[in-house]
Write a structure and sequence with these properties.
single chain; mainly alpha; 3-stranded antiparallel sheet; 21 helices
Length: about 375
């Protein structure tokens, strides 16, 4: 089929107005307007199976050297979803050759190829591909939309590997590079659920504020409200809420399998919250107070504090004789509104204390001058 016959066939279809405009731009060689119209067309479905693959073979291949490599990669990646699974990698390899001189287009296509390899179980190859892509991404010098493609692949890789910490980190980076409106409701729920799980299960994730403040989490408040409540409970180190929600979270296999680790993590966060809410002048905390806050026996408090210090969550010392923990610092975290309110109260108390000190000094000045 020739280009003109293909266009004529499309003009006779249900989206004729779009094709009249596309033909006009094509015939007048208005490549920029033509590219925008074509990208809009391929993005807007539904399309019959095989239509986009035929469009690329018959139409796009006629002018692919005239449009930008980034636009060509955008069109090609959408078309790839319509190419038969067995031919998809070969299609992407051909597309990659056409954009080899454009780093951003290369990153997008190579990331898609990596995703297909993960689906095919070629994990070791993907690990090497991620290293190559990371060098390309770093060479860009600034955050661009294609960073999202790289972080999406990286997060998918770490998800398969079961690396909760790296998955959580790169998933948040991915979300920071994309427009949430480009995701379907189902995609938003899936992303939010898996990121929430990784936050709970990651043994190096003790900062939930960034996730809790992210609009993506709104998608779970109706579909799966218990995981949002669980994240909030962990952020506060609320052991009571953790136990209250156990009938829900114990139904999730990964969480049920890591019950002991989850409870220890919540206790560590409870210690951080207890330290954060105390004024600096009152951070000598009896073992009994810590035990009550984190729902642990008193004889397990020392081990908990040692664990928190080793993870750099808090700094301080333990007085075994007096059964007191002296904490001088707590790891900074992204705070939610309730935590900010508590901090505001602390600042007001500090300001009142400073004002009182100033007034005391002012009252004593005449006596000091006389003496």
């Amino acid at each position: 089929m020739t280009v003109q016959s293909f266009i004529g066939h499309q003009k006779a279809g249900p989206r004729s107005q779009e094709w009249i405009a596309i033909e006009d731009y094509y015939s007048r060689k208005l490549w920029h307007q033509f590219t925008l119209a074509l990208i809009k067309y391929v993005k807007t479905g539904p399309h019959q199976a095989g239509h986009l693959a035929e469009l690329h073979k018959t139409f796009v291949s006629d002018f692919d050297h005239r449009i930008s490599s980034l636009a060509l990669s955008t069109i090609g990646l959408i078309v790839a979803e319509d190419v038969p699974t067995g031919e998809r990698m070969e299609f992407l390899e051909g597309l990659l050759k056409k954009v080899s001189n454009h780093p951003e287009a290369k990153i997008k296509i190579m990331a898609k190829m990596g995703s297909l390899k993960i689906d095919d179980g070629q994990i070791e190859e993907v690990q090497e591909l991620i290293k190559t892509l990371e060098e390309l991404v770093n060479s860009l010098g600034e955050i661009t939309p294609v960073h999202g493609s790289f972080y999406e692949l990286s997060a998918k890789f770490y998800k398969v590997k079961g690396d909760y910490n790296s998955f959580y980190r790169d998933s948040l980076r991915y979300l920071g590079c994309i427009d949430l409106d480009d995701l379907t409701s189902k995609q938003k729920q899936e992303h939010a659920f898996h990121i929430g799980l990784s936050a709970l299960l990651g043994d190096k994730v003790y900062n939930f504020g960034e996730l809790l403040a992210h609009p993506l989490l709104e998608s779970l408040k109706v579909a799966c409200p218990w995981i949002v409540e669980l994240l909030l409970a962990f952020n506060r180190g609320d052991m009571n809420k953790l136990e209250q929600l156990q009938p829900q979270w114990s139904q999730q296999p990964d969480l049920a399998r890591n019950e002991v680790a989850l409870k220890q993590k919540c206790a560590l966060l409870g210690l951080m919250e207890l330290t954060f809410n105390r004024p600096p002048s009152s951070r000598s905390i009896p073992f009994s107070d810590v035990a009550a806050a984190v729902k642990l026996p008193v004889d397990e408090v020392e081990l908990l504090v040692m664990k928190a210090i080793s993870l750099n969550l808090v700094k301080g010392s333990i007085d075994e004789c007096d059964k007191v923990v002296n904490l001088t610092w707590v790891q900074p975290r992204v705070l939610d509104l309730s935590q900010i309110k508590e901090m505001n109260k602390g600042i007001k108390k500090w300001a009142d204390s400073v004002e009182k000190t100033v007034q005391d000094v002012e009252r004593q000045i005449p006596e000091l001058l006389c003496n």
